[in-house]
Amino acid sequence: MVISMKGKVAIITGASRGIGEAVAYKLASLGADIAVIYAGNTAAAERVCEKCKTEYGVTARPYQCNVAEFETVKDTVEQIKKDFGTFHILVNNAGITRDKLIAMMKEDDFDAVLDTNLKGAFHMIRHCTGTFLRNKEGCIINISSVSGLIGNPGQSNYAASKAGLVGLTKSVAKELAPKGIRCNAIAPGFIKTDMTDDLADNPLLQMIPLGKMGEPEDVADAVAYLAGAKYVTGEVLRIDGGIAM
Fold first, then answer.
1. How does DSSP classify residue 11?
2. Annotated catalytic residue within 38, 63, 158, 231
């Protein structure tokens, strides 16, 4: 079934590359207008917006924003609302890694990952919820990870942030469901992006039942499904080739 998202506006964090970029193209291909939130690469964000406009005929605008900063996110969400009039879908995809074994991990490395991956999602949800409540509808999709479900050596900070996203997803889903707002999570496994370029020889890849890494488009397809799944909330959907089953 092909879902039409014409007339909808989607906010996507970390949308200038990787999974976020693929999500932007997928939702744009279904007719949604796109707010591309990015951390630092302006040229990449503008390229994503241009492709959304020229190939899919939707409106797309870039917004530079550090999602770890509460007031910055507030100002960015307010600007998006001014530019688009409203919004309907929030995809919390922004994430960073600072991998290190726990015995050598610095406090700054732990804090930085949680501030972006977990607190950043809270900031976005917090500042978008008012509009969702006024619209009496909304769809929040948090990009977690199988690391948050099964753990991963050297990623205690990353796994903690992604596990936190699962708890955040379920609590927000229960809290906002009576208002017509859905909140779900996706837990990708090994996906071919810039962040996984150094994992080509990782022995964990041999543990994937389907025998290969996934593509960003695999996650984007799951986002599109959850965006249109009107009777699904509080779910954590694994896109991992079976590694966490």
1. E
2. 158
Residue type for position 158: Y
CB 153 within 8 A of CB 199: no
Identity of the residue numbered 168: L
Report pLDDT digits (tens) over 143-165.
999 999 999 999 999 999 999 99
- Domains (range + CATH), the chain: 9-239 (3.40.50.720)
Task: Please write the tens of the pLDDT for every residue from 209-243.
Answer: 998 899 999 999 999 999 999 999 999 999 999 99
Short-list 28, 38, 37, CA closest to 5: 28
**Catalytic residue list contains 158:** yes
Structure tokens at 21: 């970029």
- DSSP secondary structure letters along 81-124: HHHHS---EEEE---------GGG--HHHHHHHHIIIIIHHHHH
**Torsions phi, psi of 145, nearest 5?**
-170, 155
**β-bridge partners, 181:** 138
d(CA 170, CA 41): 32
First vs last C-alpha separation in the chain: 27
